Amino acid sequence: MTSKLNTVGFIGLAAISSLAATSALAAGTTAGTTITNTATVDFQVGGVAQVQQSASDNFTVDRKINLLVEEVGTVTTNVVPGQTNAVTTFQLTNSSNEVLDFALVASQIAGGTAAHGGTDSFDATNVRIYRDNISSGTVGSWDAADTLISGYIDELVVDTAIRLFVVADIPAALANNAVAGVTLRATAREGGTAGSQGAAITETTGANTAGKDTVFADTAGVTGDAGRDGSHSDNDDYTVQTATLTVTKTSRVISDPFNNTTNPKLIPGAVVEYCIAVANSGSADATSVAINDPVPGQLSFSAGTIRLGGTVTAGTCNADGAVGGSYSAPNVSGTIATIAAGATRTLVFRATVN
């Protein structure tokens, strides 16, 4: 997640710089501007110049409401079960020809295919929206310096793009590759009064008037967000990447007092080897894997036989684990530092039949 945010933060800043450089061409003439044009006529009568005649015309530039909400980046945000403050990143651009407020809503899709594939299967909790603070903190990445948004963006200047973070908590006990789709929607509101959300905007119907009319020019966003409705939206998603562990326990007789290691039998005095194999079929490493196994009362633990982190070949534990673990009657225990995604590691120990 961090890598994604850092990378797209650079891209987003470049985009903002580009917008600033071309601002005169993007939104156009400011709404409410009066444009006046005067025509003059010069003429003569009998070769004598007469008083110049003139006529003027003026009109008011109407208001174009246009905005764009875009996911920053092209990949899902990877999370782990129980993670807090998981971040998806968006950019909001005011492409209108007037300073406006923008109401913001972060919602979650209900089923269906998420933005980056996979089926939406859970909802994140404690969903909030933050605005990137470009004067302090880490620009382009969510941090403590960013501003928690209370429902709207205030007085967003024409041709300005801002970074927004949807931040949420991920429930515990989720399966690997579980997906939660997130939608950020912005709706244009009247600007002009700092510190309070402006009124809803209505598109002008009918013929052009002499005043400042309003035209919705936004394109369609995600499903359910039609074009020319004064709002825009985009989706992102969280994808759970976790370890999925499967534990298998087996035993085999190593020797007995009479047959030794040739076809040994499980008689008193026989040595039994236990193998606890932990397989990780998930997509993230499992760390600090603590294994505990009580030795049955009919057996006596063989000191110094615990091996940790070994491998398995064709269902049989290999003798390639490192010496480790501990025994505190009746429990054999050991911790494997890491079981990588797709790997199997073992705890092996021996005991004698009483």
UniProtKB/TrEMBL annotation:
Domain of life assignment: Bacteria
NCBIfam families in the cross-refs: B_ant_repeat
Signal peptide from the UniProt entry: 1-26
UniProt key word Zinc: no
Protein source organism: Sphingopyxis alaskensis (strain DSM 13593 / LMG 18877 / RB2256) (Sphingomonas alaskensis)
Domain DUF11 positions: 261-353
Keyword annotations of the record: Signal
Entries under InterPro entries matching the protein: DUF11_rpt, OmcB-like_DUF11
Protein name stated in the entry: DUF11 domain-containing protein
Pfam families listed in its UniProt record: DUF11
